[in-house]
Specification:
- The chain has about 160 residues and is of the alpha+beta class.
- The chain has one domain.
- The chain contains two helices and four strands, in the order E-E-E-E-H-H.
- The protein is globular and about 45 Å long.
- The two termini are about 15 Å apart.
Length: about 160
């Protein structure tokens, strides 16, 4: 089922969140699109989640939290991770007076090391790496902060 989003946002499709493919467990999951949040409308036409599905999502998140590794990044640290190999998140933060953090998101793929993805996840990667749907300009110099809504994120 496809839902045509307003304003050029990426289409959402119903698909599994957990795969075993190419010898790897792949978990591609973001809770927000599955549930309706106050500022993020749920895609029309998607069936409501059942009590068992909600319980499974809660179990997934509690298991992840119980096994989480917290990174303590220092200034100038770079963190690279396989977006299909682990769940990740970022805690909210407040800048200290006189300084601010700057987060740059980079989609990087190594053709030799990249995992083969199941068909349901290939479309997102194709849009990022082959069709280059992400704006290629980088605002590396300090500029006013930009705000993105959850619905504007690209997911694979």
């Amino acid at each position: 089922m496809r839902d045509s989003p307003p304003g050029g946002l990426i289409e959402r499709t119903m698909r599994p969140i957990l795969f075993y493919h190419g010898g790897h467990i792949i978990l591609n999951y973001t809770r927000e699109p599955l549930l309706r949040l106050s500022n993020v409308p749920r895609s029309s036409g998607f069936p409501s989640l059942t009590a068992i599905q909600l319980e499974a999502l809660d179990l997934l998140e509690s298991t992840a939290k119980a096994n989480q590794v917290v990174l303590s990044n220092l200034p100038c640290d770079l963190t690279f991770l396989n977006n299909h190999g682990l769940l990740h998140s970022r805690e909210a933060f407040e800048d200290e007076a006189g300084s601010s953090r700057y987060l740059v998101r980079l989609w990087l793929r190594n053709e030799k090391l990249a995992w083969k993805l199941p068909r349901a996840l290939q479309d997102g990667n194709r849009r990022l790496y082959e069709e280059n749907e992400v704006d290629g300009s980088w605002n590396i110099v300090p500029l006013p902060r930009l705000t993105f809504t959850v619905a504007e994120r690209l997911t694979s």
